[in-house]
Amino acid sequence: MSDINKFHLKKIDIFFVIILFVFSLFIIFSKINLSQLDDWDEGIYANISGDIVENNNWFTQKLQGLDWYEKEPLPYWLMAISIKTLGFNVFAVRFPFAILSAFIAPLIYLISNYYTDKKIYSFLLSIVFFVNPILWNKHSPETGNFDTMNLSLFLLSITLYLYLRDSKKFWISALFISLTLMTRGVMGFLFFSIIILSELTRPLFNLKRWSTKKIILFLFISITPWIFWHTYSLIYGGKEYINIYWKEQFFSRIDSPLQGHHGTYRYYIDFVNWLSPDLLKIFFLSLITALYLIIKKQWQYFIFLIWFIFIIVPIQIMQTKLAWYIIPALPIFYLMPMLSFLDIFKKTLQKYKAFYILFTILIIFYATKVSIINTKKIFLEQNNSDKNFIEISISYLPEDKPNILLYETEGWIKGRTLPTFYWYLYFENQKKPLYTDRNVLKNKRIDLSLYNYIIVENDNLKTLDELSKIFTYKKIYNDDKFTLIHIEKI
């Protein structure tokens, strides 16, 4: 095992890290503008960040004018800085998360480099991990979602813990734990617990642990920004903050499926097995080898075990099931099999050079094949239809007529508009969209003389036809989901 505490990296390590970073950037930025903003999450985040820029209000999150307490502020701040710099466009929304996600593969390499001196294996593992279909299935690295950013910050905190735990700069790892807390909230406490429990159990492996003073300092640095933010939110939002952040978004996710996101106890097993069927078999086999190494007093594999348990058990207990909840556990599914097998068969590989060469050739061939197949899949999975509808519809709207009605287009709570529509219409094209429904139009609670155009879901065209006594319209453009109409006579 390399002397990780001195943080000595060889030239080949720096070379591999740079190659992995550039490779990651290439894939991410090749896809960054290929799809529209995703409803709901990505569109919501873009709306909130757009509001920050528009109103220069960095400490009160708002979604279409109403207070928002569901998430911590760091990702919104990064997105807002990007929008302020690059303008109101999809690229700006996604840019900070794309950059941060590009560090995932290099960090996987550095963690693997702690466990083995077989650098080509660490390099190949990092590529295979980065292009794995699970990472790119939901909330993938090229989107404006927060999960791969959160993974990158967590991996950085683990890397720094391993490399610097015996140095005076051990506390730097805690800084990045604090950033995970300011990104994904309570989940950051799981990351903190992984590191602290790993540290506290070192005496069981005949290793020296941190002093109580160091542990308290690590805790203080990790949680202080999060405590300040939530104290501010409590003062500002009071009961509404408690009801939304804690009751709805935290406790409700545990005891009931939030917004219909439910699943059986096999939800995550089935999800991983669906996208990567061989991965589960290899991983469960590696659990046996890892447990053997733990019994042999190899502390570094105990970290993997804690990592796996502290992520999987909570998401299994929760009644709300979402595919991206498993993302922080994904590195273990790749790191533990390869590294534990290499450790188990270390002497055999050293003794029989011909076998080592043949084994390495097979690994290179397999990793290359898997990486090519998965990279092709990444570029094939695109969805542009809704964005094309908005772009084409905008070309029909006169610049001097900004008002547009959205008729039952998946209208959201409290009169909020479908987030992606609001982003493209309001922030990117300076239109003034307003959500409406049949009752509002029937009872003439809107002055239709102010609106010349309506976007309607195709399924709701029949209910719109029932209002023919109030106004007549002409279809301008439609796709398989939406139709743009022009109000001709009121």
Automatic annotation (TrEMBL):
Its main location: membrane. It is found in: Cell membrane. It comes from Candidatus Magasanikbacteria bacterium CG_4_10_14_0_2_um_filter_33_14. Keywords: Cell membrane, Glycosyltransferase, Membrane, Transferase, Transmembrane, Transmembrane helix. GO terms for molecular function: pentosyltransferase activity. GO terms for biological process: lipopolysaccharide biosynthetic process. It is a multi-pass membrane protein. The keyword Lipoprotein does not apply. Residues 73-229 form the Glycosyltransferase RgtA/B/C/D-like domain. Pfam families: PMT_2. The chain crosses the membrane at residues 12-32, 97-114, 120-136, 148-164, 170-195, 215-235, 274-294, 301-317, 323-342, 354-373. GO terms for cellular component: plasma membrane. This is Glycosyltransferase RgtA/B/C/D-like domain-containing protein.
